[in-house]
Specification:
The complex is a heterodimer of chains A (about 120) and B (about 120). Chain A is mainly β and about 120 residues long. Chain A has strands at about 5, 10-15, 20-25, 30-35, 45-50, 55, 65-70, 75-80, 90-95, 105, 110-115. In chain A, the strands form two sheets. In chain A, strands 2, 4, 5, 6, 9, 10 and 11 form a seven-stranded mixed sheet that branches. A four-stranded antiparallel sheet of chain A has the order 1-3-8-7, with no helix packed on it. Chain B is mainly beta and about 120 residues long. In chain B, strand 7 (about 60) and strand 8 (about 65-70) form a beta hairpin. Chain B is globular. The chains are: A mainly beta (about 120), B mainly beta (about 120). Chains A and B meet through strand 4, strand 5 and strand 10 of A and strand 5, strand 6, strand 10 and strand 11 of B.
């Protein structure tokens, strides 16, 4: 296993279109997180899964944002009716609650979204 | 709510020299974790070092060490013998101790980052 992977790495879309990003966590990790990073800022937490259960979604930026992790493995983040303000890097991270390093999250390379 | 502040948007260091990156945070919790993450250009973020708030001893990982001042809510990162590969964005992050699964206790709160440049 080579770490957390994200697809696509780059996405350019027009305003109003829907986009979906995929994240594949480290295989033995049961926790998966989504963050958003705007230019020049630190990542901002969006949502989190424990296996297939989405345990925190109140920090999703609007009802246009939704995430799923249907089988407790990969996850998707969808943005509907994209706006220019959605342009950012979307980061995925995973961790194991049995980890010997509490709170260590391993990050993927991110998906950079540009909304024209 | 917890906040993390990095007051140095950019820092520069000569290769082989030592540099210190600053971080302050605000929390009402007594137990928590603090982290420094490194994000190289166009590469993914990796954990550099972590500190448990209940530990008085400052964490050290090879050339990286922290100065954790709990009362002052300060958590600085010292990089010794700087190398060209240390050039990156550095983010300080805070995490509460997890008490229940669904309180987002394990979310990371990040500072705005410090861009470190290393001069050969």
């Amino acid at each position: 296993d080579t770490g957390v992977s994200q697809d696509p790495r780059h996405k350019i879309t027009k305003r109003g279109q829907n986009v979906t990003f995929r994240c594949d966590p480290i295989s033995e990790h049961n926790r998966l997180y989504w963050y958003r990073q705007t230019l020049g800022q630190g990542p901002e937490f969006l949502t989190y899964f424990q296996n297939e259960a989405q345990l925190e979604k109140s920090r999703l930026l609007s009802d246009r944002f939704s995430a799923e992790r249907p089988k407790g493995s990969f996850s998707t983040l969808e943005i509907q009716r994209t706006e220019q303000g959605d342009s950012a890097m979307y980061l995925c991270a995973s961790s194991s609650d049995g980890s010997g390093v509490p709170g260590e999250q391993f990050f993927g390379p991110g998906t950079r979204l540009t909304v024209l | 709510a917890q906040t993390v502040t990095q007051s140095q948007p950019e820092m520069s260091v000569q290769e082989a020299e030592t540099v210190t990156l600053s971080c302050t945070y605000d929390t009402s919790e007594s137990d928590y974790y603090l982290f420094w993450y490194k994000q190289p250009p166009s590469r993914q973020m990796i954990l550099v070092i972590r500190q448990e708030a209940y530990k008085q001893q400052n964490a050290t990982e090879n050339r990286f060490s922290v100065n954790f001042q709990k009362a002052a809510k300060s958590f600085s990162l010292k990089i010794s013998d700087s190398q060209l590969g240390d050039a990156a964005m550095y983010f300080c992050a805070y995490r509460r101790v997890e008490r229940t699964l669904n309180n987002a206790g394990n979310m990371l709160t990040f500072g705005g980052g410090t861009r470190l440049m290393v001069k050969p």
